[in-house]
Amino acid sequence: MMEPEIVIKADNVVKSFGDRTILDGISLEIYKGETFVIMGGSGCGKSTFLRHVIGSLKPDSGKIFLLGKDLSKIDENEMDKVRMKIGMCFQSSALFDSMTVGDNVSIGLREHTKLDKSVIDIVVKMKLEMVGLRGFENLMPSALSGGMRKRVGLARAISMDPEIVFYDEPTAGLDPIVAGVIDKLIVDLSKKLNITSVVVTHDMKSVFSIADRVAMFYEGKVLEIGTPEEMKRSKNPMIQQFTSGSPDGPIRFFQQKDDYLERLVA
Amino acid sequence: MFRFFGRPLGLPQNDVRTSITKVGEMNLFAGIGKIIIGTYRQVVDVFALLFDTIAWLVMGPSKHKSVKREGIFHQAVFVGVGSLAIVFFVSLFTGVVIAMQSAYQLGKFGANIYVAPMVAVSLARELAPVLTALVVAGRVGAAIAAELGTMKVSEQIEALETIALNPVRYLVVPRFLALLIMLPCLTIFADMMGIFGGFLVGVFNLKLDPHRYITFTFQYMMWKDVWTGIVKSVVFAIIISMVGCYMGLGTKGGAEGVGKATTLSVVTSFILIILFDCILTGVFFFANQ
Ligand SMILES: Nc1ncnc2c1ncn2[C@@H]1O[C@H](COP(=O)(O)OP(=O)(O)OP(=O)(O)O)[C@@H](O)[C@H]1O
Ligand SMILES: [Mg+2]
User: Fold this and answer.
1) B172-231 tens-digit pLDDT
2) Would you kindly state where each structural domain of chain B is located, as residue ranges?
3) Pocket-forming residues, ligand 1, beta carbon under 6 Å
4) Whole-prediction pTM value?
5) Residue A202 alpha carbon, nearest atom of ligand 1
6) How far away, in angstroms, is A168 Cα from ligand 2 center?
7) I need a labelling partner for B175 at 20 to 30 A (CA). Which of A61, B19, B25, B138 fits?
8) What does the domain layout of chain A look like in residue ranges?
9) Dist. CA A166–CA A88, nearest whole Å
């Protein structure tokens, strides 16, 4: 079998905000066409990692390669060329609230292509149809619910038919049926169009239904990478605890009792 | 060139607010030093933003990345048409006030007719550009900072960059151009309305002959008075747009951050407008000697 093509490569990425180290040496490789899921506790740096991969944050040290380009070496023009080939679905949706839903979805096509307005309108309808929001083109984002906003963000992310799509918790806050539809959409895009998907999610059900491979982040490091089956069978107690969602285990949510007392009286 | 292009967020990284809040923790001199360094960095950043904006304006079209006309038009309507009413009232009443105040002095010498040039010259040289700029800084500068600040904290700026749209080109340049075009227009409008206000006082209160009032106005008001005022308003337009955009794009920390950015942008613009008014008046004054 041929070596799979690497489209994203992170090499020992370190990032601190002030004196807090958020990413502490992340290394991983993502192959073309696969659906790669990133799991990990809230606040462990998953969104921050995505921001580094799409080039909106620069690492303190380490390298990131996106579609074969070293992000620390290319200038803004080349970066823009790379950005045209990726789509990002933000955790907070990040819709442009001065534009209608339709304009939000079509902005990339309007600004970067010479397509006719009628063609763009059809593309917008198609993309909105895919996320189940056909007919909402003329509403303003402020008139949508959180889940609907998230889906518009998704339609915007795939509007330019990118090679890689990043999804930051695409199904959080959606009802189970819509979440299932979105999961299926992610799988369809990657299987039918050979799009690479990088998905951050907490939803164990969707992890097992969409992921080709899973990476588990913990305290700024990659704990383990493997297929969902491997993760399930993993001996690592932290991964077991995460997959089963149990409050007891090596990952502590609450401080130890004596710790807490110490902090209180300090 | 393109200093901002190199930076992924295209945004100011430092913040004078943080340096001020930390002053209490250290000795006075370190504190003052920190504020000076912070301010210096901010000035450098604002100039970088200005050069970047001009670079996009000049170089953009040749790279097929010119600024969309609709965006500029939309902003120009907001800046220009939207400010007409408030500029009208401010300048009309300023004209009335100047006329009455100078009549109080000139009347003692029986020189009431000199109210006409007094009003026209002080408006054209000084009051119309400065008052219009202050009004627009309060209205438009604040709106720019609040809008861009909200976009920043809700990740919209980041989203824009991910779609390969440069925030300077897409957001800053249209606002810059709109102010650069509309503020001088508003200033000329303010000149006319102020002179009209003085005329009302002169004719109805001081019983001056309308024809003579107008003749006197244009006899003593030179072209130079008008264009120095216009030059001032161009500089003020640059100040308002750059400060508003800089504060907006540098916003940190949610709704509170947006509020701070808005306030800071208005306060900074006011101070800079008065400061540059003083400098420019000095330049025109000494150049004339
Ligand atoms: N701009 C920033 N300045 C300072 N700290 C930041 C910044 N961005 C993120 N952080 C910190 O980095 C840590 C990781 O944040 P991040 O958003 O990556 O978490 P996450 O893994 O996506 O969490 P969640 O699952 O809740 O979305 C958090 O503790 C956050 O406080
Ligand atoms: Mg996150």
Assistant:
1) 999 999 999 999 999 999 999 999 999 999 999 988 899 999 999 998 888 889 999 999
2) 68-287
3) A 17, 22, 40, 42-48, 91
4) 0.86
5) 25
6) 6
7) B19
8) 1-85+212-266
9) 5
